[in-house]
Amino acid sequence: MSRLARSPLAFMVAPIAAGAAWLGYGSIVAGVTVLIAASLAWVALRPALPAAGGVRIGWAILAAVATAAALIQFVPYGRDHTNPPITAEPVWDRAETRALAVRACYDCHSSETAWPWYTDVAPLSWLATNHVEEGRAILDFSSWDRPQHELDEMAETIAEGEMPPRYYTILHSTARLSAAEKQQLIDGLRATLAASPPG
Ligand code: HEC
After folding, report:
1. Tens of pLDDT along 1-27?
2. CA of 11 to the centre of ligand 1 (A)
């Protein structure tokens, strides 16, 4: 019994099962996190097992952090990445305006959000989901049949570099707009809004 308990397998059976269940959900990273947590727990606790040595504190702390990182993967919030249906789009003034908006705004202000692999990993999945929910609630280019909010702010937020948000363009370099592209998007959105108001 004590030999079995001292084997790394004893620490891995449950996490491997949990990790495998999660892989069905679609994230390899979550599974790997669980395995790292189990390995660290094993390193930390092994010497103490039959009563020798005591727990090595540094490893125990690492194991606790890794276990927490693994456990938060199972929180349901942020895992549903089903995009709502597109009910109506603006009649864009030019295809180039739409292309710029898709590049810089659509991940948060449309139903065409792309969800890269790291949006499956908590806590990033929570942040991404929250920003998409908030973004769509204010302005949604895929629900142009509904009233939209703060449209008069649009030009200003783009010109001042407030939108797209900086934390986002760090990860999405393609969403960065040059000064010329910003101006082109502002002019295009103004023309689009004038000809095709929402609601
Ligand atoms: C990473 C997600 C994300 C992207 C990309 C993004 N937005 Fe936003 N946007 C938000 C969120 C979240 C809010 C509401 C909270 C806030 O104001 O920060 C918001 C708010 C706004 C508002 C309301 C005014 C304000 O500042 O609160 C406007 C207008 C807006 N966005 C336009 C845009 C435009 C135009 C683009 C593309 C150039 C864009 N956004 C890109 C997430 C995003």
Report:
1. 456 556 666 666 666 666 665 555 555
2. 45
